[in-house]
Amino acid sequence: MTGSLRFACTGCGKCCTGHHVPLTLAETRRWAADAGQVIVLLEAFVTDGPGMPQEQREHVMRRSHPVRCGEGEIRVAVTFAAFNPGRCRNLDDNDRCTIYDQRPLVCRIYPVEINPHIPLRPGSKDCPPQAWQQGPVLIHGTQLIDTELETLVQASRQADRDDIAAKVALCQALGMTTSALKGNGFTAYLPDMGAFAAALAQMPEDAGAQWTLHVEDEALLANLRQQGLRTTHESPVYYAFIGF
Fold first, then answer.
1. Strands 212-214 and 178-181, sheet pairing
2. Distances in Å between the alpha carbon of 195 and those of 131, 170, 234?
3. How far apart are CA 103 and CA 97, in angstroms?
4. Of 75, 79, 78, whose CA–CA distance to 52 is shortest?
């Protein structure tokens, strides 16, 4: 992107509708305590192998955690997100956020991207055109101008790194140990929130569980099996496979 990009929220509420909002571990606790449903999204890759985007190596390595998979090892990235298939439960009748001062980091950062390798593209956002025609300069060239937003982006990335081991341990404690391959899709779980909240309160240790990769592409499946990795292509029962 060249030139400058402006942005000012119009309050339309579209970014708060039909989007699952990634949460830090602390935000997940608050969401669960407020009787919210959490969706768990899993993707994994082999270090310098299938699923590893070499151009993003440092970023994905720092926000993932190694786990056992068959005779080998994969690295898993875990996203806990507020489950919002429709309107966010915190929007009022005027599309205003009722938890604005305590809203999650991702909401505070929007519309900026957290992944440093994904450029901000207005066409990929839900905001109306006028949102990009007003307000202060947000980005000039590839540089984020808003220093407060930059601080929040860095805090979100750091939370991903700090929380990942605990998130993996929670997934293992609840039996959520089948992941998609990064770039090929996600596996998505909707855990029982009673059990999820109990696990959050207990914060289990890493049990060293055996993980499985859900892959439906036959060539990729054969590649992974040749590496001794545990795979499945059966129709899921306890999770959904969201393929790309």
1. parallel
2. 41, 10, 26
3. 8
4. 75
Non-local CB neighbours of 151 within 8 Å, separated by 6+ positions: none
Q: What is the pLDDT of residues 85-141, one digit of tens each?
A: 999 999 999 999 999 999 999 999 999 999 999 999 999 999 999 999 999 999 988
Q: What are the residue ranges of helices labelled H in the chain?
A: 25-33, 57-62, 105-109, 147-173, 193-202, 218-226
| 97 C-beta neighbours (distance < 10 Å), count | 16
Instruction: Give the three-state DSSP class for 240.
Output: strand
Sequence letter at residue 188: A
Query: Which phi and psi angles does 80 have, rounded to 5°?
Result: -95, 125
First to last CA, the chain: 25
SS3 55: helix
Q: Which band of pLDDT confidence, cut at 50, 70 and 90, is reported for residue 72?
A: very high
Q: Is there a contact between 73 and 45 (Cβ–Cβ < 8 Å)?
A: no
Cα separations in angstroms, 87 against 12, 18, 30, 38, 91: 12, 6, 19, 15, 7
User: Whose CA is closest to 176, among 73, 43, 13, 11?
Assistant: 43
